[in-house]
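ingest -> validate -> predict -> emit
validate: passed (alphabet ok, no gaps, 350 aa)
predict: started
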Amino acid sequence: MQHKFAIDAVNRTIQDILGIETPFGGLTVLFGGDFRQTLPVISHGTRQQVVAASIRRGRIWRDVNMLYLDQNMCLEQSPEMQEFANWLLNVGAGTELDQSDTTAVPQHMVCDDLAEEIYPGIRDNGWKEDQYFLDRSVLACTNDSVMELNSELLNLFPGVEKTLLSADSVVLEDAAENEYQPYSVEYLNSLVSSSLPLAHLKLKVGCPIMLLRNLDASKGLCNCTQLRVLEIRNRVLKCRIMSGDVRFGGTVVFIPRITLSATAEDMAIPLQRRQFPVQLSFAMTINKSQGQSLMHVGLDLRGPVFLHGQLYVGLSRCTSGQRVKVLLKEVDGGRTANVVYKEILTGLNL
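emit:
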């Protein structure tokens, strides 16, 4: 997923330090990745722009030697899983696409209720262990779908719901005008950005959440760290770390409200939001899940994938094909869209 410019920048820096003009100053550099997976994210980018940002279109590519791994170590090792691994490779390479660019989903994966399949017993009042939430997740293609799924699953989760409100403001260029806000609070609260937490953050004691910012790496509080809510206060959340570095697993931490700014790519308004830098983690986007291995995976494909490798990444997050469940539209007939940019795979030994 790295942009070719980032790799070129490292290459030039090492060349400058060593004073040697050969690639990476003559050092051996190992890249790890799978071109079947998602490519660099280009905001509002076209297919051509996304492909052009890949390392395969970079100047360094002509000096790269390919080494291939031929065994899927994420999957349980059994004859059935080897068949599933081969099917995944075909999905990633787009060899099973029909004329409408869709792929057939095995019947045993199709389900009608992701909540019941992936989070069995979530309605029970019994306290779930942390591993219960670490082992499972529902994946979707867009942030809007993820927010909807998280809201539905929170409603099923037992406990009293508490809504935590943000303090939103617009940062004006003229300091003398900072006292005047040209937008109403209601309007600012309604704005949703992928770089900001929700203005109306709804939580329950015991629910799983995910950090959206690096707060303190020395204490294990990094972006995407999963936590468990133990206590909810207006100005602080008492949580327990569930994922990340094993040294910090089970550590009780306090998450404060902080001021966050929306990126210019996400929002034209210079919005600042003071809120807890967390979101519910019952569900996450397929792109954010890349690199994870889970015991139970649900895929909400009622809104089909729209980028190269998204379907392959979503299906390959689980350690067993028997524990992958897919929710489709009834009119899809057991098939779903699969986007594969075959030009990025050309010349590879797939």
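The chain has a mean pLDDT of 91.
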